[in-house]
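2024-03-11 09:14:02 INFO worker-7 job=invfold-0412 stage=load source=structure_tokens
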């Protein structure tokens, strides 16, 4: 049952709220409790909460973008970032990945970093072989204005604020 908000989904909200209240009373975690956490809980969808919980367990994941280079010079970023995080987390709306990631970044919980990436380039293979990316590449290859494409290999990672939020609110 997806009602559009993690914070309005009854049991999940009360569990996060209970975690928040309990953490604020413990000596070892009370300094991690930020006043904004209450409002953040209200602004998360159930899918975003799943993604945060997963990110908290791995710290960072690969993301892939695509630039289309024009015959006339220059390039256009056609996909700023793509991630299979919603599929890994078995989210209800995996193709809403861009909205979900933008919301988590807007809340200061994650950073989408296109200037830092993994040394181990095999981490990007599942993304490069994903149906969405393959379809996008076929469209680019058939576009007469595009001479070539390049990948943007980056990562999505929890911020320090996001790590505290996960510790306090997601358990």
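2024-03-11 09:14:09 INFO worker-7 stage=emit residues=171
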């Amino acid at each position: 049952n997806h009602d559009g908000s993690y914070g309005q989904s009854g049991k999940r909200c009360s569990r996060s709220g209970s975690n928040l209240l309990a953490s604020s009373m413990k000596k070892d975690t009370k300094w991690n409790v930020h006043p904004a956490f209450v409002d953040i809980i209200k602004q998360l969808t159930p899918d975003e909460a799943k993604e945060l919980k997963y990110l908290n367990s791995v710290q960072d994941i690969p993301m892939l973008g695509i630039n289309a280079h024009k015959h006339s010079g220059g390039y256009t970023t056609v996909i700023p970032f793509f991630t299979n995080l919603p599929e890994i987390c078995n989210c209800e709306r995996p193709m809403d990945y861009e909205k979900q990631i933008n919301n988590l970044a807007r809340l200061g919980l994650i950073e989408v970093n296109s200037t830092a990436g993994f040394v181990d380039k095999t981490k990007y293979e599942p993304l490069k072989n994903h149906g969405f990316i393959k379809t996008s590449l076929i469209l680019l290859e058939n576009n007469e204005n595009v001479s070539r494409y390049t990948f943007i290999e980056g990562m999505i990672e929890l911020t320090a604020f996001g790590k505290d939020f996960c510790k306090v609110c997601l358990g």
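2024-03-11 09:14:09 INFO worker-7 stage=report msg="The chain has eight helices and four strands."
2024-03-11 09:14:10 INFO worker-7 job finished
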